[in-house]
């Protein structure tokens, strides 16, 4: 239910990397356990858009400061990413359409 | 420069479709010419995340009501999509990191 928060993460990676894939999966599982977590969606490939959804800005900040997440950010800068952009978004309105309904 | 708006469009398509790809490309070119347009990013594949960026909510609404865009939305419901979700987001904060800097 709006309003809620989204963190849009757009990245370009240096190369396909097994360790990256493993840690990305671990982080996704860890994010799901955080208070205020709503959802996570991600594309695939070296140019990627991922979006995590959170109940409020406090939940966004807690996740940013999570120690394991911080380690992954450092690893990302050291090795995985050429570029990334983070956007903190307040979702004001949302609607969906489903062929089956 | 924040604040600005993003329209997050998540979709599942029915199948790969040449006409879809052509019209998606046309629409992207058309969006670029609209007042208030900032940027457009998209993943690829049948499960897709696309984000268009706009200077303000007026620009978002104008683009939604654009006649060609409306035709594409109708076509999408008739043929291309199984599911889609639209989220209107106010980008409050943004930062980026670049290996080269």
Question: Rounded to an integer, what's the Rg of chain A over CA atoms?
Answer: 14 Å
* Biggest interchain interface, per-side counts: A-B, 34 and 34 residues
- How would the global form of chain A be characterised? globular
Which series of helices and strands of chain A comes N to C?
A: EHEEHHE
Let me know the number of strands of chain A. 4
- How much helix is in the residues of chain A? 25-40%
Tell me the strand order in the biggest sheet of chain A.
2-3-1-4
Low-confidence stretches of chain A: none
Question: What is the number of helical segments of chain A per DSSP (H or I, 4+ residues)?
Answer: 3
Query: In whole angstroms, how far apart are the ends of chain A?
Result: 20 Å
Would you tell me the overall average pLDDT of chain A? 94
Main beta sheet of chain A: strand number and arrangement? Answer: 4 strands, antiparallel
- The percent range for strand residues of chain A is 35-45%
**Class from helix and strand fractions of chain A:** alpha+beta
Name the quaternary structure: homodimer
Tell me about this structure.
The structure is a homodimer of 101-residue chains. Chain A is α+β, with helices and mostly antiparallel strands and 101 residues long. Chain A is 38% helix and 42% strand. Chain A has 3 helices and 4 strands. In chain A, helix 1 runs antiparallel to helix 3. The longest helix of chain A is centred in the N-terminal third of the chain and has 15 residues, at 18-32. Strand 4 (81-98) of chain A pairs antiparallel with strand 4 (81-98) of chain B, so a sheet runs across the interface.
């Amino acid at each position: 239910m709006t309003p809620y928060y989204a963190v849009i993460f757009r990245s370009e990676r240096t190369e396909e990397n097994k360790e990256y894939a493993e840690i990305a999966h671990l982080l996704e599982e860890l994010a799901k356990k955080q208070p205020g977590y709503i959802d996570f969606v991600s594309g695939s490939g070296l140019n990627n858009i991922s979006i995590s959804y959170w109940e409020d800005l406090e939940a966004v900040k807690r996740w940013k400061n999570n120690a394991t997440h911080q380690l992954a950010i450092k690893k990302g800068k050291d090795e995985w990413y050429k570029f990334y952009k983070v956007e903190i978004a307040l979702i004001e309105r949302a609607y969906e359409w489903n062929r089956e309904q």
